[in-house]
Structure formats: C-alpha cells, structure tokens
Sequence to fold (321 residues):
Amino acid sequence: SLVILHKGKIDVDSILNKGTIFTVELPVSKVDFSSNEISIEPVQYLKSGKVFEIQSEVKGKSDSINTEALSSKPMILVVEDNLDLIDFLKSILESKYQVVTAGNGREALEKLENITPDLIVSDVMMPEMDGMELTQRLKSDLKVSHIPVILLTSKSGAESKLQGMRSGADYYLEKPFYPEILQQNIENILNTRKRLIERFKTDDNMQLNEVAHSESDKIFIEKLTSIIKKNISNPDLDITFLLNEMGVSRSLLHLKLKGLVGCSSTEFIRAIRLKEAVKLISSGKCNISEAAYETGFSSPTYFTRRFREFYGKSPREYFNI
Fold:
C-alpha cells in the first residue's frame, strides 16, 4: 500500500528453497507528482488554531534584551539540530521562558557547565550525541539529574517510547506534534515542581523522596535528610558539617536543594529541624521548650521566631495551646 501511494510498483521473484527477491521501483521525478503531493521538508510540528510566523534575524540589527524580565522567567534548554524547528520552538516559547539552544547532546552538556535550566526539550536523532544518550548522562550526573527532560522524536511505537522512558526522560512526545501540547506539557511539569516545593514547606508528613526526579536524586535527598535527623540535637549541625558528611561541594549542595525543594542549604536544615519539632510536640513526647532543644535550637525564643517565619504562626497558635 505504501508503494502504491508513492505511485511505484513492487515485484517478487521467488524460488523454493533458494530465496526470494522483492523489487520496489519508485518514481523520483517531480513531474510524476502533482504540486500538493510534494513536500520539501519533513513535517516536525502541526499548526493548529494559530499561524506562527518565523522571522530570521536581520544582519547588523542588535536586539535589546531586558535582562530583568528574562531573569524572572524559567529557563528552557532546547537541544535540536534542525534550525527551522529551533526557530519555531523559540517563537512559541520565548514569551513565557528564557530559551537557550544547543545543536546536539555534546553542545548541551557544554552549555550546562555554565547554566542550570528549569527544563530541557531535546530531539532524539542528532549527530555526535543523540537525545537518548544525553538524557542518560543527565540523569546519572548529580549536578543536573533534577532537571526534567522532554524528548521529541519521529520514532513512533511503544518500544521507542519505552526506550525514552528508560533513559530517564520525564515525557516523550512524537513528531509531528501540536505546539499547544508541548507548551501544556512544559507548563504541567513546571507547575508540578512548584506544587512539590510548596508541599515541602506546608506538609510535615510529606516523604522527601517525592521531590526526586531521578534515582540519584532520591538517594541524595534521603542520605542528606538521614544525616540531619541523626544529628538533629547537635546545635553545631551546619552546612560545613553536611559537606563533610556528604562529600560534595558547597555549590553542588546549594544547587541541588534549590532545584529539588526551592531553598538554600541553611533553610533546608532549619526546615527539617522544625518539621521534627512539630512531630515531637504533636506526639506529646515534648513540650515546646523541650522540642526546641531536642531539635538543635539554641533557645525556645529563637525556635519560636524561626517557627513563625516558616509556618506563619507561633508554636502556641499552631498547636492551639
């Protein structure tokens, strides 16, 4: 049926116990097809609802960039070797996001040495390093393993999708795709992360591994939390102590916690102390002063001040005492 659709013909020559030869002939001249049957470029996306105009940069023209406006927008790294598709993706994303681009997986890894995007959109088929290998490297690198990845691919079928999921991708979108579907997936992923960060700040029963985006993230956050809880009554438990116990750099610890739970290292230690204090008071094992000392605060007064900052009310108001 595919051969017929391409106005070709197929023949078979078969000899029993010797073999079979199929011969397919396809016309390659434009005169064999009408104008509406000819496609110059492969379809990478489907336009629906709106018509998107892609404008090339004008030589000699310098665009003025509002850096303050950019800094408030989430950053997306687009990894794609098709220049037309890069221009198209930038045109539909730049109103809401900072868009940084790379031509293949190797270039993307080089860019990630200097930037930390909120999300990565990557093609699968690329030269030098494809999207699958890029995703596998990202998810095994503690520095960037928390960054969500959306893979774009022209490969269809359950097996290809499963391969993409196994590489660690958060979502797998087949080409051709509708722009609105990509935009909605990006928004959903980023909103889910925001809700997890809010839950961390408000839900004392939340399991911290719920914020993990990869197995390495899960191991990291569980180990870090375990160290803090094990030494929680020690008032000298600080960032330096954690760095020595975890064997990571100060910048990496800060980067991971900002990405996973939206707070600094100091804020994370304090949050775990406060959450454990709430559990002690709620269970009736300790009163407010006892819980303050048990969780490493220097005094009940300091504990109350930090408690109010985190929960928006004093311990007495929180527990209706």
Observations:
- The CA atoms of residues 173 and 181 lie 9 Å apart.
